[in-house]
Write a structure and sequence with these properties.
mainly alpha, 20 helices, about 5% strand
């Protein structure tokens, strides 16, 4: 499990922007520390701390934490505009005769910051204003050294590929939604005798189906940008009563599509169980899905596990008393116990910690998989955001919530990266 970021891991000694200074609690335009941890600062101070200089570069943990949580207070394109303006002003990039020696020292740091931004939050650059500002800054520093042209082209090519992948993901969501609607209408219009084949005809091996479900989970998870977890719960900024924060460009479609996938899997399980006309056949399907759920648990795919259990607990299935009487339910009750919501899903959280520990020690990709129960993850982030104020009475950004959001979202990203997307 991720560890809390302390001051030494967020900032190295002397690792402060030369335009800022750490201060004691109560000062206004500074970084406020308490017990060695950054707890608050004005938005302007946090932005300044993000801006590299000739002799300074922000810590990687700070970059991710601030870029992730900043959208609670400012649109990404506005943030990039402020960063670029500060760079131009502080490095005098508008001078008639730029200081090339200075820019050669500053350029690599700016490129590194923009590279980290584009790699971690490529969704932001679906906004053309972001790309325009990015290109403008590149041209300002590239004119001083030809090597920057090559690095600029590499970054833009990488960004273009990421945006292409995101676009393909968006198209896939549209196609999937259209296909689901068409099949739903088609399914309702068919007579029972000509309806689609049942799951045991298509795949009668629980492990194989659990693997395929895990492939789908990992593919859909990989499309969710870390910012979507924050944007899903973005509220109106207390210091700006004129507009909800990030309303115009709020994009959580991949997150929403993943939640819809969970719901569709629930209904698929319930439908497959209810389709057979005979009790014996329905019991066989139930036992098959119990085995699928168990394999999902063994793999570490808790989201599909919960979807399968939820499908079997839906009213159309749970009311089939005579069918359930023919089912060996011991394994099902064990799985239900693991996902029991009692004590805020204590059993599940214990199993999740065990799976995370196993993943850290694992050597094969199969053992590295940890896919959490997604709805509960979203709920945790929601209450984390709701339970703390984003702004303090003095107008400072509550940076403690930024760190908490970082921990929650980064844990999910680490799990996904560790598997390489392969079960």
């Amino acid at each position: 499990m991720p560890q809390a970021l302390s001051c030494p891991s967020m900032f190295t000694p002397g690792g402060f922007s030369p335009h800022l200074h750490p201060s004691k609690e109560g000062e206004h335009d500074s970084l406020i520390f308490q017990d060695g941890n950054l707890i608050s600062a004005s938005l302007e101070a946090l932005i300044q701390h993000l801006v590299p200089t000739v002799d300074y570069y922000p810590e990687k943990g700070y970059i991710f934490a601030f870029l992730l949580s900043s959208r609670l207070f400012i649109d990404p394109h506005e943030l990039l505009s402020k960063v670029c303006h500060l760079c131009i002003e502080q490095q005098r990039l508008n001078d008639p005769v730029p200081d090339k020696a200075r820019i050669r020292k500053f350029g690599p740091k700016l490129l590194q910051l923009l590279t980290e931004w584009t790699e971690t939050f490529p969704h932001d650059f679906q906004d053309e204003r972001m790309v325009d500002q990015l290109t403008d800054m590149f041209h300002r520093i590239a004119s001083c050294d030809e090597i920057y042209w090559k690095k600029m082209n590499q970054l833009l090519q990488g960004l273009s590929q990421k945006l292409k992948t995101l676009h393909q993901g968006d198209e896939s969501i549209v196609r999937t939604n259209a296909s689901v609607s068409e099949k739903s209408i088609s399914f309702k219009s068919k007579s029972p005798s000509i309806q689609t084949r049942d799951i045991l005809t298509v795949c009668n091996d629980p492990y194989t189906l659990a693997q395929q479900l895990t492939h789908i989970e990992l593919e859909r998870l990989s499309l969710i940008g870390p910012e979507e977890f924050v944007q899903a719960f973005a509220h109106k900024d207390p210091l700006d009563s004129t507009k909800p924060c990030f309303k115009d460009t709020k994009k959580t479609r991949h997150l929403e599509a993943y939640v819809k996938w969970f719901n569709r899997l629930c209904y698929l399980v319930a439908t497959e169980i209810c389709m057979p006309a005979k009790k014996k056949q329905r019991a066989q399907v139930i036992e098959f899905y119990i085995d699928v759920a168990r394999e999902c648990f063994n793999i570490g795919n808790f989201n599909s596990l919960m979807a399968v259990i939820s499908g079997m607990n839906m009213t159309p299935v749970s009311r089939l008393k005579k069918t359930w009487a023919k089912v060996k339910t011991a394994k099902f009750f064990v799985l239900e116990h693991q996902m029991d919501p009692t004590s805020n899903f204590y059993n599940y959280r214990t199993a999740l910690r065990g799976a995370a520990h196993r993943a850290l020690m694992a050597h094969s990709n199969r053992e590295k998989i940890v896919i959490p129960f997604f709805s509960l993850l979203i709920k945790d982030i929601y209450f984390l955001n709701e339970g703390c104020t984003n702004r303090l009475p003095n107008g400072h950004v509550n940076f403690e919530i930024c760190i908490w959001l970082l921990m929650k979202v980064k844990a999910q990203r680490i799990n996904l990266k560790r598997t390489g997307g392969n079960p």
